[in-house]
Amino acid sequence: MGEHIIELEGITVRKTDGVLLDRISFRVLRNEFIGIIGPNGAGKTTLLNVIAGFERFRGTLSLFGRRESWRRSRATRLRIGYVPQLFQIDPAFPILASEAVMTGAAGRLGLFRSPGRQEREKAIRLMEMMRVAHLADRPLGQLSGGERQKVSLARAILQQPDVLLMDEPTANLDIAVQKEVLDLISEIHRQEDLTVLFVTHDFNMLPAAMRRAVLLDHGSTVFDGDIDTAMAGKTLSALFRYPLQTFERNGRRFVSYG
Amino acid sequence: MVEHLADILAYPPIQRAAIACVLCGVSCSLLSVFIILMKMPLIGVSMSHAAFAGAVLGMLFNVNPALTGFILCLLAAGILGPLSDRTDMAPENVLGIMFSFLMGLAFLGMGILTRTKAVALNLMWGSLLSLSQTDIVILALITLLLVLFVLLFFKEIRSVLFNRRLAAASGVPERIVYYALLFLTGAVVSSNLATVGGLLIFALLVQPGATALQLTYNLKHFFIISAASGIVACVSGLVVSYIFDLPSGASVVLTATIIFAAAYVFSPKRRMAKLKKKEYGP
What we know:
The complex is a heterodimer of chains A (258) and B (282). Chain A has 9 helices and 12 strands. Chain A is α/β, with parallel strands linked by helices. Chain A is globular and about 55 Å long. Chain B has helices at residues 2-9, 12-37, 42-60, 65-84, 91-112, 118-125, 133-152, 154-162, 164-169, 174-191, 197-204, 207-213, 219-244, 248-265, 268-280. In chain B, helix 11 (197-204) packs parallel to helix 14 (248-265).
């Protein structure tokens, strides 16, 4: 049995408008790739926010063997990378793509230390890995959505985290770019030896490296197990309250209307 | 004309006014970088009204108006930070509420002020020629503090300006940077009440940053261009006001607007964007 680096026990998040997470419990092994999947409003992003330290909660959360409150030490934050959904940026905003990647090193460097040659070389290496090195000197706001998400991935990895939290990183991208970004995510997982929690509602766009799925509905866990079982038509129909069926092609499962 | 200006500069009140202009230009325009890039122009309005309300309250209770203005500004910054971090309230709404509350407070103070209101009104548009040595020293210290903040924490500032949440996630003390920024805004605004006044300072907290936004994609250059345009607006505004016998605050603000308009018209960034649009279609 491997080491559990994330442990959630009875995690509950309440807001004035209701319960967003209701006693969520599961554990994550080092190097696992888990999909947090569910319909809109299921509590997926809230769950990611709890782990990232952006959300107050009740229950027990342990990260890297240490019990954590919603406030995080810098040391813990450095070990958790975060890739958000594609966000809007003013095209005139004064930041180049390479500078945006370099912001990933800001926390690790600490106060009063500027990024040196080592960080710059690592940033360029990561941009090469993400196939955006040729855009290093372009203003970030002028890149396409897919290019910006690749920059975002490079930024998160420059932080050298152990865990990568991804909140629908392929949302709002066209289908070809989605596939490219998903392949890059699987590559990062393998090369950087990362534990990945990947939030999505799109069953047809799952990274190949994903082996386990936690299905959420109305803030509760309705399934926790291997991805193939999660992809059963019956499970998904119940989750989305809509008749769905799954079929297999080239070793991959796809979801369609039933 | 030049000789005449040199003669005028020999007078200590004019020297102090010129120094204050430069300091006001630097401090306000450095802050305007944050205000423009974080899209929070109401910060300037709220802070200037906090300073103004504080100063009026100081007059009401016979306490040094500059001190009470400064205290109320810091208080406003202390309330604004945690309130704008609440997820159930949009920061611009918090700023709007605070702005109207402080404006009400200032006018209430003005209404019940039994003494002459001329002194209080001076705080609205400043009076560069009646600055004391102490005013200049305070302004210089606060400007120095702001310059050091930008130089020492440039890396953290860039991260926070880019995206506060991502900065926090990557271990940058974003909340400290953001709160420090609010406190510095309070300090800069209250220390400039005597120079350009609470009403006109808003223009200097927006226009230099808006000017730089037209001209560069480099954040370091952004700070430099903003500071330079702030200094040019303040100094040339003062000279124009002297030559044509115009109110100095109004001249400074109108000069800043002209600089912004020129930057907008000749903006290389706008030209690039237009070319790109032509190349790729709408």
